[in-house]
TrEMBL record:
PROSITE patterns per the UniProt record, alphabetical: TTL
InterPro entries on file: TTL/TTLL_fam
Gene Ontology biological-process entries: microtubule cytoskeleton organization
Protein name: Tubulin polyglutamylase TTLL11
GO cellular component, one term: ciliary basal body
GO molecular-function term, one example from the UniProt record: tubulin binding
Keywords: ATP-binding, Ligase, Nucleotide-binding
SUPFAM superfamilies: Glutathione synthetase ATP-binding domain-like
Membrane-spanning residues: none
């Protein structure tokens, strides 16, 4: 879809020149910048501190919160390793074999208490260099994990495993790799006289850039080295006042292991600016009708900036929910469905994040109590269908936290104006996130007396602690863990991947790691049908096929490729009615063998695996009743099919019983 302001089509050679000229114009533009200045800094040394030097456009809302909280803003933190002069000979002596870890430890001990408690980056985890302690507001690898193709692939995989649970994401194809599959599906739809529309989005695009609608795959315009996602276009969105809209839901991933998810009760609603019509040849190019992006619609003459709750092109989610309630929709049900979409999506992406986290923070174990931990605010774009059913469009790793908007008062003259709607939503979100992740023991700011005593200075700026807005509600584990824990199958696969990866800090599994995996899980034992050679061939084949995913990274099999290998082996080795059944059986089998192999005594290694698996079955039988077992190869398993899907027993963790020693 063409930029509505551009008089040329994207294929027109003048398009690039127009874009460059516009970019230059914006660069030179006189900008009247909206800005929140830093407040007076607390002199209390124990006040919580936050590094805002990398916060960029988020700094305004952060400053508003910091002023309320009485926390310290550090705009130019000294790199942590320059902090103090203490020598570290003792550590070097003790940890000489762990060169890398030693360095990290040295850096930590060198701290003189002046480092920040929180680091607020604008995009990536790695922006805050040299951080070795404190909380960082980005997870390593999040941007890559939620990128359109990657997210689509992960949700597709979950759909294969749990078709009924993961039906909230439009069917997608990754182009150019899956172009022939895309053509096949489109042809079949055409044969059934179904009029389909597809939306094409560049993988790395944002703010609606480069998006267009097509009716047939032949209209897809491929461009060199660019990857796209083709997606089923939702042609029946719910409309308000005739306009298409979508929600930006804010979610805080407070911790990955254990998983902790919060949802913000207030969100944004973004409206299109031209009344919606069913897509036809004539209106396919109307960006203001089909795309809800603020960055596009703000250029429309119909765009309405207003402080009122009930109209305007950007409104609070609660005001739209009130309107939907008046229209007779069950808004509580819609909200519950949205929460479920959020939890299921994070359950799907968490295993890959865990792999990235381990690779980026290999020493986290050694500095567990004072090392780095992460949290992140995510933006979920959710569209409602005409019946109120939510559809997940995308997850933004870096949702805009600006509280101003850009207004082009004349060509080349931009003004940044304060936006009350944005502040109403984002200020409580940021404030509550800060309160959630800050060190608990220091969350209450000292009263003036103790602050004065502590710092030795006259404390001019001590405020009573802000209690927050109560806008975040925990949806996992508090609300949904019992319902959705059975979906965390990829998490168990990630544990096996990490266990066999070999090199700490690596993201990809080499051929040795893959062999270790086969050995630890006893996949090559006699009678299983897998020889070392056949597994080697599988490894080489998959590695080649998955090379295109993050080609810039080191060679080897990444986590997604490993999952494919795992599923292939599961299908052959543990055939079942569904892929889920095969994978669950293989996970049980692999976990049992890994645990067995990790026992230090050689004696235990030669214990027949059967005894152990049988013991597990006995234990499960006592919990879930007898006669629910079946035999596959030389192992025994609980027969999951006998339980209704929602009541399937979670496999007992192997830790729940000890090995029988001879
Ligand atoms: P971007 O990251 O560029 O904003 P999105 O995936 O959010 O890309 O898509 C931009 C807009 O296009 C969305 O806000 C939504 O209005 C519309 N859109 C995207 N995908 C679909 C879809 N499958 N069906 C209907 N509308 C869609």
């Amino acid at each position: 879809m063409q930029n509505p302001l551009c008089p040329f089509k994207p294929t027109d050679f003048r398009y690039a020149a127009w874009k460059a000229e516009r970019k230059a114009l914006r660069f030179r533009a006189k900008k009247n910048r909206f800005r929140v200045e830093p407040g007076p800094q607390p002199k209390n040394r124990s006040a919580i501190s936050i590094d805002t030097s990398k916060a960029k456009s988020t700094v305004d809302v952060l400053r508003l919160c910091l002023k309320d909280l009485g926390w310290r803003e550090d705009q130019n933190p000294v790199p942590q390793h320059y902090r103090s002069e203490h020598s570290m000979h003792m550590h070097q002596l003790f940890l000489i074999g762990y060169y890398f870890i030693v360095l990290k430890s040295i850096q930590w001990v060198k701290r003189d208490g002046g480092t920040c408690d929180l680091y607020w980056n604008s995009v990536h985890f790695t922006e805050a260099e040299d951080v070795i302690a404190g909380k960082v507001n980005k997870f390593p690898g999040m941007v890559e994990v939620v990128r359109k193709i990657n997210l689509g692939r992960t949700l597709d995989l979950m759909h294969r495993l749990y078709p009924e649970e993961y039906d909230f994401h439009p069917q997608s194809w990754f182009l150019p790799q899956q172009f022939s599959e895309f053509c096949d599906v489109a042809r079949r739809a055409h044969e059934r006289r179904l009029k389909q529309v597809y939306i094409i989005k560049p993988d790395e695009g944002s703010q609606g850039e480069g998006i267009y609608l097509i009716q047939e795959p032949k209209d897809f315009i491929s461009s060199n080295n660019k990857r796209y996602i083709a997606q089923q276009y939702i042609t029946n969105p719910l409309l308000l006042e005739g306009l298409k809209f979508d929600f930006r839901i804010y979610v805080v991933l407070a911790s990955l292991d254990p998983l902790e998810i919060y949802i913000c009760k207030e969100g944004l609603t973004r409206f299109c600016t031209i009344p919606y019509q069913h897509p036809t040849n004539k209106n396919l190019g109307e960006a203001y009708m089909h795309l809800t992006n603020y960055s596009l619609n703000k250029h429309s003459i119909n765009y309405l900036h207003t402080e009122s709750e009930e109209d305007g092109s950007k409104r609070t989610m609660s005001s739209v929910f009130k309107q939907l309630d008046r229209m007779g929709f069950d808004v509580q049900q819609i909200w519950d469905d949205i929460e479920e979409v959020v939890v299921k999506t994070i359950i799907a992406i968490a295993p890959e994040l865990k792999v990235e986290y381990r690779a980026e923070l290999p020493t986290y174990k050694y500095v567990a109590n004072f090392g780095i931990s992460c949290f992140q605010i995510l933006g979920f774009d959710i569209l409602l269908q005409a019946d109120g059913k939510p559809v997940l469009l995308e997850v933004n790793a870096n949702p805009s936290l600006r509280i101003d908007f850009e207004h082009e008062v004349a060509p080349g003259i931009l003004e940044h104006i304060h936006s009350p709607v944005d502040e109403e939503i984002k200020r409580p979100l940021v404030m509550d996130t800060l309160l959630l992740v800050a060190p608990r023991t220091r969350i209450v700011i000292d009263d003036p007396k103790s602050a004065t005593h502590d710092s030795g200075d006259e404390c001019e700026y001590v405020r009573p602690p802000h209690r927050g807005f109560g806008t975040l509600s925990q949806i996992y584990p508090r609300k949904y863990s019992t319902d959705f824990d059975w979906l965390r199958i990829l998490d168990r696969t990630a544990n096996i991947f990490l266990d066999c990866l070999g090199v700490r800090g690596a993201l990809r599994m080499g051929s040795t790691g893959f062999r270790t995996f086969a050995r630890k899980c006893c996949l090559t034992t006699s009678g299983t049908g897998f020889s070392n050679a056949s597994l080697d061939i599988m490894y080489i084949d998959l590695q080649r096929r998955w090379e295109h995913v993050s080609p810039q990274r080191t060679s080897g099999l990444g986590f997604q490729g490993f999952i494919e290998a795992f599923f292939l082996i599961a299908k052959k080795r543990f055939p079942g009615d569904t892929i889920l059944e095969s994978v669950e059986n293989m996970l049980d089998y692999s976990e049992a063998n890994i645990e067995l192999n990790s026992c230090d005594s050689k004696k235990e290694l030669i214990l027949p695996k059967l005894t152990r698996t049988e013991k597990k079955v006995e234990e499960m039988k006592s919990v879930y009743g007898s006669n629910n077992r079946k035999t596959i190869g030389n192992a025994y398993f609980i027969d999951y099919k006998r339980f209704p899907v929602e009541k399937r027993p979670r496999p007992l963790r192997m830790k729940s019983f000890s090995l029988q020693k001879e």
